[in-house]
Amino acid sequence: MRIDEFHLHDKNRIAASYYAEDQKTASLYDYPTFHHQSLMKRVSHLATREFQRDELVNYLSDYNFQYACSAKTLENIRKLRDPKSVAVIGGQQAGLLTGPLLTIHKCISILQFAKLQEERLGIPVVPVFWMAGEDHDYEEINHVFVESNQQTKKLALPQPSPYKTSATLMEWNGKKAVDWLETVFANFGETAYTNELMTSLKENLLHAKHVVSSFAQLLTELFGEFGLILVDSGEPGFKRLQKTMTKRLISENQKLDTAFNRGLDRLSQLGFDHPVEQQEGNAHLFFYHEKERLLLFRNGEDRFETKDGSISFTSEELLALAEERPECFSNNVVSRPLMQDFMFPVLAFVAGSGEIAYWSALKDVFSIFSFTMPPLVPRLSMTIVSQKSEKLLQDVQLPLEDVIQKGTAQAKQRWYEQNKPHDIQSIGEETIRAIQSAHAQLAQLAIEIDPSLEQLSEINVNRITKEVHYLQKKMEQKMKKQYKDPLARYDQLALALYPNNQLQERVWNVFYYMNTYGPTFVKDLASQTYAFNGLHKVVSVTTS
Q1: What pLDDT shows up at residue 374?
Q2: Which of 316, 251, 236 is closest to 285 using CA atoms?
Q3: CA distance 348 to 337
Q4: Between the CA of residue 81 and those of 86, 87, 126, what are the distances in Å?
Q5: Mean local confidence (pLDDT), 162-176
Q6: Which residues make beta-bridge pairs with 265?
Q7: How far apart are the C-alpha atoms of 479 and 429, rounded to whole Å?
Q8: Is 386 left (phi over 0), alpha (psi -120 to 50) or beta?
């Protein structure tokens, strides 16, 4: 593997401003950078806080052990007993087959930043991956994209439950998941590694109770030797450790929401759009009722209820439920960062652009609970480039950076316009002008014969013009067919490096690359050295 890097313009204005260390957004965060001075300051803050370290270590040991975690992971978990120890944390929804590549990139970011800071700070720093198992949007995690007929194709596994419940509680049919897997790999294509991967993945899907346990097992296998610690935010046992903070989220709910809205207003004043939807009375907590995950709203000073009012509690009733059944509660995008900060001594949070944007509204929310928002570390962003793609880049003479950022559509059209032998567009326009000129005389005569024929004349000329346009379109199609092979090079490049007009890491799945380069692909990727300098990484891979 060869690692190169370049500056990639981020379309998210808030994140771009944060990366640039712009003073405009610096005031939105407690630590406007993730440099050494900020991290030292964060360590000092965490030293003043107390955490339920023994309970957390016991829970994490049991949870990770069930997935046959490595000795390195258990060692990292035990480090959390040390009152000086801190964590680098990041997370993602639990997608099928680990979801898009960015999940893999985030794991690598967490591992490498934790290792780097342990060396620099001289204290135990452990890597933690927070699996968002409490999320209920199954359509965001139920699929992978594959290549089919030179296009992306979405292969989804149908939702196993009709209820809008969390992914952790959504048990599935392993046999149906295996059928889905076979379709996925049929599109990947058979290689020397396919049978080995398929055997392992089939076992994973058949033994997993749901997508989160499948996801956890895969991450353990891919990153266990590096010591990655996993936690499922939706697991009932973990919920019970959150009880104290859940009660605080209820009792301080009005203050929390006011602080959040103040953060959104501050963004508006700075000229930014709201990164999170603003809803009046949002309690920023979900409640599980009859298998469904329902958002709660405040109604007045002392009542919480669902949007339709069908379920309602007083503050006292809700606090009692949080004490007795904390597993009935679930966090949203505003309360989840608070819960992470309560549960773990968070040195830094590894974030994508979207997370950096919505955390910009949370500074005052953290202060309500006497917390400070941890430094945000932009996760490593990467594009994997094959030898085939490198050759195609040479053939079409396009800069790699351009293809990664905007695809090949404009370059493809430019090549076609420069190389096609006939200017169909100009000839077509000239033909239409001639037809319209000749038809004008006919139309004038029709009106003189009977004024009521004017509308028919307009319809007639439009119909003729439409037919000419249709002929032009067909001529262009036939012409492009003659240039199918040279034009296809542009499509192949875009499909590999800018699929669906997005960064590669947001679309393609890691098992396509493991099927191509072998089961050690992720280990090899994670073993490279990456600089946390905000630059996009280009990973050039050779076929073994």
Answers
A1: 98
A2: 251
A3: 12
A4: 10, 12, 11
A5: 78
A6: none
A7: 18
A8: beta
Region 347-358 average pLDDT: 96
Q: Which long-range contacts (CB under 8 A, 24 or more apart) does 264-270 make?
A: 264/361, 266/28, 266/361, 267/14, 267/28, 267/360, 267/361, 270/24, 270/25, 270/28
The contacts of residue 3 (CB under 8 Å, 6+ apart) are 528, 529, 530, 537, 538, 539, 540
Q: Cβ(290)–Cβ(164) under 8 Å?
A: no
Decide: pTM greater than 0.70. Answer: yes
Characterize the bridge pairing of strands 143-148 and 151-156: antiparallel
Contacts of 389 (CB under 8 A, 6+ apart): 492, 493, 496, 497
Tell me the Cα Rg of the chain. 28
Is the CB of residue 498 less than 8 Å from the CB of residue 504? yes
With CA atoms as reference, report the closest residue to 223 among 96, 411, 76. Answer: 76
Which CB contacts under 8 angstroms, 24+ apart, belong to 255-259? 255/368, 256/284, 256/334, 256/335, 256/365, 256/368, 257/281, 257/282, 257/283, 257/284, 257/298, 259/364, 259/365, 259/367, 259/368
pLDDT digit string, tens, across residues 5-47: 999 988 899 999 999 889 889 999 999 889 999 999 999 999 9
Question: What are the structural domain ranges in the chain?
Answer: 406-503
How far is it, in rounded angstroms, from Cα 93 to Cα 101?
Answer: 13
